[in-house]
Amino acid sequence: MNGVIVAAMDLGSNSFHLAVFRVRPDLTLESVAKEREMLRLGEHVYRDGSFSDEAISAAVRTVAQFHAISESFGAQVIVAKATASFRDAENAQQLNDAIWARTGVKVQVISGHEEATLIFDAIRAACHLGSRPVLGADLGGGSLELMLGDQRQLIAARSLRLGVGRLRAKFPDERSDAIEDYVARELGEPLATMIGYLPTRLILTSGTMNAIGRLALSLDHDHDDRDDGLLARAVTRSALEHAVELILSTPESERSTLKGVDERRAATVGYGAIILAQVLRVTALDEVWLCSWALREGIVLHEAQSQEHFAFAINSAELRADSVRELMLRYRVDGRHAAFVARFALQLFDELSPLHGLTLEARERLGVASQLHDIGAFINRDQHDRHGQYLVKASPPRGFSRREIAVIGAIIGSHTKGEVEAPSDLDPSDLDEIQFSAALLRLADALDRSHQQLVTDLECNISTTAVELDLHADSDLSAERYALRRKCRLFEGKFARQLLVTISEVDGSTHHV
């Protein structure tokens, strides 16, 4: 099999990109064609709130050109995804409709989290990350995507309104003293949270970051300047800091003379340098990589894996994690909430192991059910537990046995309320695992009823009559207290102990549930 040709359009706030790839059966990508048009649509949106007529005409014309190129190379799949400026523009639908009328291309406007997920998929495919967390940063015209994860999974992602076009619209003079303070405030909490996971490496992607990186590489006298075709290249922190200083000290009219900075990027690269300087300062990571793959490669990989007729072979060591993540993306799961619920469900599983006696395999199934517990909301928020159970069975994650899928589905189908029963196709002995796991998932889900991830830690103490759950929080947990009162019945029945919850909030107040 020679592979399938996939064309991906990345309709960004700063520029539009086309990447046409032949996708091989082992998910390697062979580049067929690449195009880029610097349209700076975001500058219209961040200044006026909508796309101008001229911007719409330019965007439609560019997508038509990209579509013609894709067809000329025999693309069997053509997909277009739009990011921050489309999310923000009041008349985005007008532009989408104009593109559809002219080209037949249906533009998918993706959320910041979806964008980060696709970018991180591309990073994982291009770079060997290992088992320790890394921090990714992708800077576009309208947003900065921060991603934390390892080779197996995306742990956390944040999309910040810190794109270079957005920043330029807000601060027309990049020498303004207010810019650094603004960037520091916007980056403060998200970076602090991710640094708490102790990432070992910083990985930079996108045009602006790579432009600064290329300049940094040229300033490193020990660097071999030849194009070696690598998808990821290490760059020293000191060289990046030198590049940032050089960009900011060079007049905009002369920046195109700097290696790696072309004329079209000269007006915005200074804002990127300010953002990167803050990221380097806060993270203090010495190991930095430049990754040439980003959103468009992530789009291609996702499209290839989601098409059943492609029948791609995937590394079995990553099959389960990859497949679960693909389902989360397909059904638009809130990744931050899912990660939070999985984290605390597994912590409860570990701390209460003397009471339930379940196996490590059961622990893995609980983790998967926790990540996928909300996929049913894709169909309807009402009864999303039962819808989720249906979806897991209808499009099961790869690498799991039929029994495992049934158990995971039953846990998902029981995570909100009601009695818990084993499906008819399971052995009655599986009921214990389903009931214990559903009880833990109900509690973990209740701990993030607000979907704001306010609980920072928990501690469990087991006695002969009760389980004492001590929660620590950054803010008021009114929604979580309400949910815990509603979702404790299954836990108390299955674990044969009263659940006593104490909440210690950041202001020093204490609440009992």
Question: Which descriptors apply to this entry?
Answer:
five-stranded mixed β-sheet, globular, 15 strands, 18% strand, 513 residues, single chain, six-stranded mixed β-sheet, alpha/beta
Structure description:
This protein is α/β, with parallel strands linked by helices. The protein has helices at 41-48, 53-72, 84-88, 92-103, 112-126, 164-170, 177-195, 207-219, 237-249, 269-283, 295-306, 319-330, 335-351, 353-356, 360-372, 384-394, 402-413, 431-446, 478-487, 489-495, and strands spanning 4-11, 16-23, 29-37, 77-82, 107-109, 134-139, 144-149, 154-160, 202-205, 232-236, 287-291, 455-462, 466-473, 498-505, 510-512.
Number of strands: 15
Per the principal axes of the C-alpha atoms, what is the gross shape? globular
Low-confidence stretches: 311-317
Give the amount of beta strand, in percent.
15-25%
Report mean pLDDT, rounded to a whole number: 88
Q: What's the end-to-end separation, in Å?
A: 60 Å
Write out the strand line-up for the largest beta sheet, numbering strands in chain order.
8-7-6-9-11-10
Number of helices: 20
- Describe the sheet with the most strands: 6 strands, mixed
Using the CA coordinates, give the radius of gyration.
24 Å
Helicity range: 40-55%
What structural class do the secondary elements suggest? alpha/beta
